[in-house]
Amino acid sequence: MDAFLHAAMLMTTPILLAAIGGLVNRIGGLVNIGLESMMLAGALAAVVVSSETGGVLPALGAALIVGGAIGLVMSLIITRLAANEIIVGLGFNIAIAGLVRFWLKSAHGVSGTFNPPGVVMLRHFDLPGVDSIPALGAILSGQDVLTWFAWAMVPVTAFMLARTRLGLRLRATGAAETTVRAVGLSPLALRDASTAFAGAMAGLAGAHLSIGVVGLFNEGLTGGRGFVALAAFYFGRASPVRTALGALLFGFFDAAQIRLQGRGVPAELVQTLPYLIVIIVLVGLGLADRRRAKGAVL
Amino acid sequence: MTKTVETLLRIEDAALPFVIAVVIGALVLFATGYDPLDVYRLMIAEAFGGESRIASTLTAATPLLLMGLAAAVAFRAGVFNVGAEGCFYLGGLIAALIGYVLGAWPSPLIILSALVTAALVGGLWLYGPGVARARLGVDEVVSTLMLNFIAIAVTSWLVDGPLLARGSANSATPPIAPGAELPRFLPPSAVGLGLVISVVLVVLYGVWERRSVSGFQSNLVGLSPRFSRAVGIDVGSTYIRMMVLSGAIGGLAGAIHVLGLVHRFVAGFSPGYGFTGIAIALLGRNSALGVLLGALLFGALSSAGSTIQLFSNVPIEIVQILQGAVMIFAVAKFRTARGGEARA
């Protein structure tokens, strides 16, 4: 049981990181379909820099910058050229995945997996005292910095959005663009910043998968987690806490499918759960809206 | 005079994304130490140089014609369906099963029942998101994107366990009966009935879109749902109809891919045809001619990509980079918006 809880926490981290980024982005008025590409690039950047420098911090920094830069470029195309965010996001997923594989083949002569020597992985820290408590020890102790960072970002994001000037401006950017422009701020710049933030968070999510979990890069490493993160922030709507719960739920599914497989439950079907839940949530919201609209008329 | 200017601007609109993609591809090639001109010259030769190369381009273009059409039909009515990919999988699987199980039937009968069933399954698959969009306002982009993942996972589960071919190590159905294979016109290439069906459907779409009342109405719904509602068009039903039609075409594409080329269903057998189809529809501005040219272009790209790796050491992924870049810039507006707020 403890091992399962620990695994579930580990699987939640990348989804949570990317989902918080996507949530902030969506509040700023942009649905980020390209998270998967930023995650993939972040994962590769972390492995490359970790093996070159032997340091974890530079690796995380590289993942953050690469993810953020891709996010910024994507955002500029969407906001400045009035391009459809969904198609641009899908295009980024295709182009970046191609670019990553192209570069691995042409620069390193490898296809699929890149495992350079000297990759330093994220350290796992045990919390003395906490680690011996059943269940709670498995959840809190023996985690890496990114896991703690991801969870710390939940209240931080909630506070930023609800209580700070920046949070208010960002919410206004998504909800009332003309008002933001009327008071002399640039909604597009705020939106770009939120996409760069989402990219940076997705980059860190990728780094967690590559130097936090497996210690190498593989082109299938992200395995649709960018879309699961999308599912998590659709599930969470505008709330960071609910988004975190969604990410946790999907992290549990991720950890559970490995165990359920041993008992004859097919992994493929467990993997569809996040996507099914999003559809159910969206239909539920639609039904609730309609009921409210009818109530208003009567 | 103004008409000529408008036509020129439209051509420019359609060509610019492709030009930008080619430039980006050239930069990537140059940065990694290849000569972009050499690579592009080789790609053109590999796509169009000689009968067998043209045949392979046409083979690659076949699923793209239908997937581009599936996207165009929906986009034109303002339904942003990205779920044709899932229909391709479901249609492919059901066609493979019919081609195997009904193997003893006369050939035209197997083929007809496989194609019709696949189209039905594809249409049914998108009926749900169509209704959810029309009646509850559920964002169809997200719902159909999610349904893609579900269709891909469910089909690969089915061929991994319940429907796995006996003695087969990889996740695939048994091969279809010889009678279920679509006739080929230029053996050994796979150019055949599938291509003919696809081209005919695209041409029919062109006639429907320009000459029929319902084609005009669905375009009107795409341009302005409020106006359409005001003049008495049932917008919700149009959304549902176009979504189902798009799904049916997607399912048919999967069936043709199985019966005409692969001859069995293999898990994960679409290299993202649905997304290429979206790029084609966007680039072709949802017109029949645009879909034809776009499918030919992307077909040429993929058939060239698969062989340049053999003759030079340029990784095949250059095609993916070009494809993604075309998609990104196909929706960008380079001239200041003329007050339109269309979603694509």
Topology, please?
The complex is a heterodimer of chains A (298) and B (344).
Chain A: H1 2-27, H2 35-53, H3 56-80, H4 85-108, E1 113-114, H5 136-140, H6 145-163, H7 165-175, H8 177-182, H9 187-214, E2 217-218, H10 225-236, H11 240-262, H12 267-271, H13 273-297
Helix pairs in contact in A: 1-6, 1-9, 1-10, 1-11, 2-3, 2-4, 2-9, 2-10, 3-4, 3-9, 6-7, 7-9, 10-11, 10-13
Chain B: H1 2-31, H2 36-48, H3 51-76, H4 84-101, H5 107-125, H6 127-136, H7 140-160, H8 193-211, H9 213-223, H10 225-230, H11 235-262, H12 273-283, H13 288-311, H14 318-330
Helix pairs in contact in B: 1-14, 2-3, 2-13, 3-8, 3-11, 3-12, 3-13, 4-5, 4-7, 4-11, 5-11, 6-11, 8-9, 8-13, 12-13, 12-14
Notable characteristics:
heterodimer; A: 298 residues; mainly alpha; two-stranded antiparallel sheet; 13 helices; 2 strands; B: 344 residues; 14 helices; disordered C terminus
Account of the protein in words:
The complex is a heterodimer of chains A (298) and B (344). Chain A is mainly alpha-helical. Chain A contains 13 helices and 2 strands; from the N terminus they run H-H-H-H-E-H-H-H-H-H-E-H-H-H-H. Chain A has a two-stranded antiparallel ribbon. The longest helix of chain A has 28 residues. Chain A is globular and about 55 Å long. The model of chain A has no long low-confidence stretch (mean pLDDT 90). In chain B, helix 3 packs parallel to helix 8, helix 5 packs across helix 11 and helix 12 crosses helix 14. Chain B is globular. Chains A and B meet through helix 4, helix 10, helix 12 and helix 13 of A and helix 6, helix 7, helix 12 and helix 14 of B.
